Amino acid sequence: MSSRDYQNRVNNDLGDIFEKMIDQGCWYYRTKEIALIEKTPEPFRVKQILGDGRMIVYPIGKAQPDYKGTLWDGRAIVFEAKMTTTDRLKKSVITQNQAALLDLHQKLGAMAGVC
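The structure corresponding to this sequence follows.
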């Protein structure tokens, strides 16, 4: 495994851990009736079923922000989750579509941002 492949795997694993932490926070808010925030599923189409519980898929549509929901006071909340091992998060990690959707949600009164 190349050092680049290794770093990609580490970054993906850290991203998964980060999203699990967010999911736990969302579960807590739900049980306390503070908010209902859910992960937005990525739309995909199945290309091939491999028969052992795996499949080959490809994305359809443009990526949306990762989480959407409602706060206790009725306001909407929407945010993108990003993990980095550096001290800065590059703007380029947010797609143009995600940025446009976050901006529109905020204009419409939602709490919107990047976590």
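The longest helix spans residues 3-31.
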